[in-house]
Design a protein that fits this description.
Layout: H1 3-16, H2 22-37, H3 41-45, E1 60-63, E2 72-76, H4 81-92, E3 99-102, H5 107-111, H6 119-127, H7 131-149, H8 156-163, E4 167-170, H9 173-190, H10 195-202, H11 206-213, E5 219-222, E6 231-235, H12 247-252, E7 255-260, H13 265-273, E8 277-280, H14 283-295, E9 302-306
Parallel strand pairs: 2-3, 2-9, 3-4, 6-7, 7-8
Antiparallel strand pairs: 1-4, 5-8
Helix pairs in contact: 1-9, 4-8, 6-7, 9-14, 11-14
């Protein structure tokens, strides 16, 4: 598989699994293209033209020619300078590595992480929160994330990959879309009665079994195992955690239990006030599940897991 093919495949599969639905995603892309056509030539010079076809700003080829053949991939959740050097060390020891594949964004994909957070607005609207209310409440959080990544030295890992002639790519939201949609469908089908039943559904997946063994997830952090679950909402996509001001709106929309990768203390306090049960499935386990579901769709690749990535294949 060529690098460019792999990148475009990941984006397309991310769209297919986007919880907002393809129609919403394609409408967003049309609006971006219309805005681009109205720009001056000077504005177009600095516009990220990948946005015209890729709705996920946190997913990009960071280094390497799109025609490069990819057979062996070093895959991890966080692939930074140390992991890029690991790939080169493996090459020195005779184990070829064609691609360093990160889940969490690096480079310009990290700088633009805040752009995918508008997904939270549309997901809230799907639950019944008025879109104008969702946009207003999330604006402060999106601005906060933009400011937080602004001073980051985004290009460190990419620069090392460039100097070592290693292809590097990150796949963030497309993988998160996979775990979100996969789990939401499981909960919609299972209709768990109590919060403890939510945990049992999660424990059907090997990634969460490992998280439980590692004390890295499967925690009820708001509510109680014996409380009724109510409507289960899987909140695992959209760049990073949303606004603390949304929890009262989620409760008003009928959400009884939220299943998350992680939650900030500020958000947790608001969830408790709203009487929403919160289950932390596990950050690394959830990221691994999303990546596994996506990687299983690709032609046979040799996967070398590292940096927390838990490789479990569901290919028959």
């Amino acid at each position: 598989m060529k690098l460019g093919e792999m990148y475009r495949f990941a984006v397309e599969e991310g769209i297919k699994m986007d919880p907002r639905g393809r129609q919403t995603v394609e409408a967003e892309l049309r609006r971006i293209r219309e805005d681009f056509e109205k720009m001056s030539e000077e504005e177009k010079k600095y516009f990220d033209q990948e946005r015209l076809t890729n709705p996920y700003a946190d997913t990009r080829i960071l280094n390497g020619d799109e025609e490069r053949e990819i057979r062996t991939v070093l895959v991890g959740i966080d692939m930074e300078v140390g992991e890029v050097l690991l790939a080169d060390r493996l090459r020195e020891k005779g184990r070829p590595v064609d691609l360093v594949l990160a889940h969490h964004p690096e480079g310009t994909a990290l700088a633009r992480l805040y752009q995918v957070m508008h997904m939270h607005e549309e997901l809230a609207a799907m639950l019944g929160v008025p879109i104008n209310v969702a946009e207003g409440l999330l604006k402060e959080r999106i601005d906060q994330v933009e400011r937080s990544v602004l001073p980051t030295n985004h290009q460190r890992a990419r620069d090392v990959a460039r100097l070592l002639d290693l292809a590097m790519m990150c796949i963030h939201t497309p993988a998160d879309n996979h775990v979100t949609t996969y789990l939401q469908q499981k909960f919609d089908q299972a209709q768990p009665y109590r919060v403890e039943d939510v945990l049992e559904v999660l424990l059907e997946e090997p990634e969460y079994q490992q998280a439980k063994r590692d004390e890295a997830g499967l925690k009820v952090v708001a509510g109680d195992k014996k409380r009724r679950a109510g409507k289960v909402f899987v909140d695992m996509t959209g760049g990073t955690g949303g606004s603390k001001d949304m929890f009262a709106k989620y409760a008003d929309a009928g959400v009884g239990t939220m299943v998350c990768m992680h939650i900030s203390e500020a958000n947790l306090e608001e969830a408790k006030k709203a009487q929403i049960n919160v289950v932390i499935a596990g950050h690394i386990a959830s990221d691994s599940l999303g990546m596994n579901l996506l990687l299983d769709k690709m032609p046979d690749l040799e996967i070398i897991p590292c940096s927390g990535f838990l490789r479990y294949s569901r290919k028959k």
